[in-house]
Amino acid sequence: MVEITDVVCSLCGCVCDDIVVEVEDNKVTKVKKGACAVGKSKLMGHGRIEEPAIRENGSLKECSYDDAIKKAAEILAASRRPLLYGWSSTVCEADKVGVELAEEIGAVIDNTASVCHGPSVLAIQDVGLPSCTLGEVKNRADLVIYWGANPAAAHANHMKRYSYISKGYWTEEGKKNKKLVVVDVRKTATAKMADVFLQIEQGKDYLVFSALRAMLYGYEDVVPEEVGGVSKKELLETVRMMKEAKFGIIFFGMGVTHTGARHNNIVNAIQTTRAAHTHTKFNIMPMRGHYNVAGINQVCTWETGYPFAVDLSRGYAWYNPGELSATDLLIRRECDTALIIASDPGAHFPGESIRHLAKIPVIQIDPFPNPTTEFADVVIPAAISGVEAEGNVYRMDNIPIRLRKLVDTEYMADEEILERILEEVRAIKEKEGE
Amino acid sequence: MISGRTIAQGQNLDNKLSEEYFNEVATCELNGSDMEKLGVAADEPVKVKTSFGEVVVRAKEKEGTPEGVIFIPMGPWANAVVSGDTHGAGMPSYKGIDAEIEPTEEEVLHVKELMKTYMG
Description:
The complex is a heterodimer. Chain A has helices spanning 37-44, 65-78, 92-105, 118-127, 134-140, 151-154, 158-161, 189-192, 205-216, 232-244, 254-257, 263-276, 293-304, 321-324, 326-331, 345-348, 351-357, 414-433, and strands at residues 2-7, 19-24, 27-33, 53-56, 59-62, 82-86, 108-111, 143-147, 179-184, 196-199, 226-227, 230-231, 247-252, 281-286, 310-311, 318-319, 337-341, 362-366, 378-381, 391-394, 400-403. Chain A is of the alpha/beta class. Chain A has 3 domains: 2-41, no CATH class; 46-114 and 291-433, 3-Layer(aba) Sandwich (Rossmann fold), CATH 3.40.50; 118-286, Dimethylsulfoxide Reductase, domain 2. Chain A has a 9-stranded mixed β-sheet with strand order 5-4-19-18-17-6-7-15-16, with helices on one face. In chain A, β4 and β5 form a beta hairpin. In chain A, α9 (205-216) packs parallel to α12 (263-276). The longest helix of chain A is centred in the C-terminal third of the chain and has 20 residues, at 414-433. The radius of gyration of chain A is 23 Å and the shape is globular. The model of chain A has no long low-confidence stretch (mean pLDDT 97). Chain B is an alpha/beta fold. Chain B has a single domain (2-116), classed as Barwin-like endoglucanases, CATH 2.40.40.20. Chain B has helices at 7-11, 19-25, 32-38, 76-79, 111-116, and strands at residues 2-4, 27-30, 45-50, 53-61, 71-73, 100-103. The model of chain B has no long low-confidence stretch (mean pLDDT 96).
């Protein structure tokens, strides 16, 4: 038995890096400390896609890596409008090869940001983001606001490691000297811990941000007695806490990006943070979901100039999320093939878009079988990043952290699979050129 | 209707073809008084209908959910009834969908059966 310390979790955007596991006979046998229930489940492992496979007459037939890679390359090389989607549950090194492949075949490359914090990215491009690192939050924050986010379920270590419960240099007494405000439609487990819980009506986030902004700028007289289901009294109490804080932070989640005004909600959230600057230090940060969704946004930006929904078919990068997000392409039935890696649109896309995805040739690269596997035509199993393969990822505050390899594997890493596909695609194109 | 994460949904993210995932995600959380109004008990099937589709899930009482709101954990069952319209922003409408809910005799589809409805 070997004990491995400083293990980095490859599940959510918290990227906890203080985990201790036990490894025996090349298997993680115990998660001793550090990981939350969700991260622990990931590290202990689940049933795998055991062999590469190609669909023949409706069912998947096992084949060699060579055959699956060759088939994938043939499909992509013959495609007129390929979509390369996913990229958030793998490492930056693989993402980089993905962008190269997209460029080679003139694909649209999109990542899971388009169904999580895509609107946040649009808002940040619009008005910027007064933000900080999670380390600063841990050491300084005395007011933590979770808005449309339920870390108790989705980022279970977030409060303990970085925000409300954590103890830092100027916050050595932990939550004793901190305040927690939660804004949500449901009284979630996170909301139950809050000093102030603003239970808003679904889709009314924009109004509540606007009311807080007005109050922070001193115009409380224009705010009615109730806004979006929240009383003026509760709003005034929240504003008082914001003004009195030494260091405040708003963490926002899908409750804000998935509804109503989408990116305009986030613009308003950022402007509320700015309004708080007239009184004190305040920050805002999106609660990124996948452990490396921030990383693919980084890689895609430094390679193409844009973070997601990028069309490389024109010979230069073209960015237009409302036209080029995977969902939009699929609903318009525009793409004729899709490579899906490190994500699961079969489970996480609206039914309307899955209908087209299920009809076109789909290549799936993933360690685990999932709803996308049900209609994938070429299935290529991959090593699990952070357990069987190493590489760099970006935490939700855009801090790069290197995932560690804990056990050996026979499975190919995402990066190698993509390099092999790219090599095959180039060989096919060269032959065609001749 | 809104959708979102739960702990068990997250624990089975890499295990979506399992019974554990099915038991957690093919459900619909609602307020006790809404359950009474519908005349459904915990774990009984309900049909959720929207302009974008319909799906059968099992009812689950959850006090923190306000009256008139249902919560379906993010996943294939929620996505059967959400809207793909991104309003030019790239983001589908996963939350805030008008839905009708009623008791049903129909069975909840397993994930493989649900995916079959998109094929062919």
